[in-house]
Design a protein that fits this description.
The protein is of the alpha+beta class. The protein folds into 2 domains: 6-130 and 283-289, Probable inorganic polyphosphate/atp-NAD kinase, domain 1 (Rossmann fold); 133-281, Tumour Suppressor Smad4. Helix content is 24%, strand content 35%. Strands 5, 6, 7, 8, 9, 10, 11, 12, 13 and 14 form a 10-stranded antiparallel β-sheet that branches. Strands 2-1-3-4 form a 4-stranded parallel β-sheet, sandwiched between helices. A hairpin with a 2-residue loop joins strand 5 and strand 6 (133-135).
Length: 293
């Protein structure tokens, strides 16, 4: 059984952070549980990573749950700060709006209830390491110009599709080269959702030691427009109409090389390089999953 945890709520420094802090303080007071808690307003994911990592180094003897109160990028930053922190340090998510991809992974679980969070239990989850950066949910290529920034899906453009069509990328999955030719996009998922609400890997599990890889080959624009709804809704992998257009694998490691710099999206954060070494780290972080009552 876990000892009494101290809770450190990590908020995004924004115009609404004061209201959220007041709301959380009021709810903690109404619970009258005697739980110790504090707040930190992070300037961004990197700031959250540094603060969490430093806190873990300075307070090794304090069992602490770091609660991400923001989007995918903030959660990834908090989780990255917990890497290697040892026993007694936990990740949690407070998501009253239902937009956080890690929270959405756990269907039917209320991540917007502090009582349920306090009563929750830890579960080990995997993490994706991309060069020296981390993602909790997914790493994608080719979607950054096509996402609307909302959970509603894509806003594709013909110029985007054509530009992607001439990009050749070399990919090795678990050391084996894949015959991809030129590709339009790929998704590499630990969880079900990528940033922006894309249900890119509906069958993925974040604690099985594997990532779900989906590579979409170059397509004529008219065919791509037909593929987009299936990709956004999670139906692409089961749609036999696109069997010849995609490559599906479940992998532990991925190596990506390009002659020119390309940009990957890591839970809403951008990483630009010509070479990426991506691997899954099993059971990397302990996540507090809220009680279901």
């Amino acid at each position: 059984m876990m000892s009494m945890l101290r809770y450190l709520f990590i908020l995004e420094d924004s115009e609404t952070s004061a209201n959220l802090k007041a709301k959380l303080s009021r709810e903690m007071h109404e619970m009258d549980s005697g739980v110790e808690y504090d707040f930190y307003e992070a300037a961004g994911p990197e700031d959250a990573l540094r603060h969490v990592s430093l806190f873990c180094d300075l307070h090794k003897d304090i069992d602490t749950c770091f609660v991400s109160c923001g989007g995918d990028a903030l959660t990834a930053g908090v989780a990255a700060g917990l890497m290697g922190s040892g026993e007694g340090k936990y990740l949690a998510v407070y998501d009253a709006e239902g937009l956080n991809s890690l929270a959405r992974y756990y269907e039917g679980v209320d991540f917007g209830s502090l009582p349920m969070l306090i009563a929750g239990s830890p579960s080990g989850i995997d993490m994706i390491r991309i060069n020296n950066s981390y993602a909790v949910n997914a790493c994608t290529f080719g979607l950054e110009d096509m996402m609307s920034g909302k959970a509603s899906g894509f806003i594709p453009s013909l110029s985007t599709i054509l530009r992607r069509s001439f990009r050749t990328i070399r990919i090795k999955a678990d050391g084996v080269p894949l015959d991809t030719g030129s590709i339009l996009l790929f998704t590499l998922a630990n969880g079900k959702y990528a940033s922006g609400g894309l249900n890119c890997a509906p069958q993925a599990s974040n604690d099985d030691g594997k990532m779900d890889l989906c590579i979409v080959k170059t397509l004529p624009p008219t065919r791509m427009m037909k593929l987009i709804p299936a990709l956004a809704s999670g139906g692409l992998t089961d749609d036999t109409a696109f069997t010849d257009d995609i490559i599906l694998r479940r992998v532990k490691n991925l190596e990506v090389e390009s002659a020119k710099e390309i940009t990957l999206d890591l839970d809403g954060m951008s990483l630009t390089d010509k070479h990426f070494t991506i691997r899954l780290i099993p059971d990397a972080v302990r996540l507090i999953v809220p009680s279901q009552g």
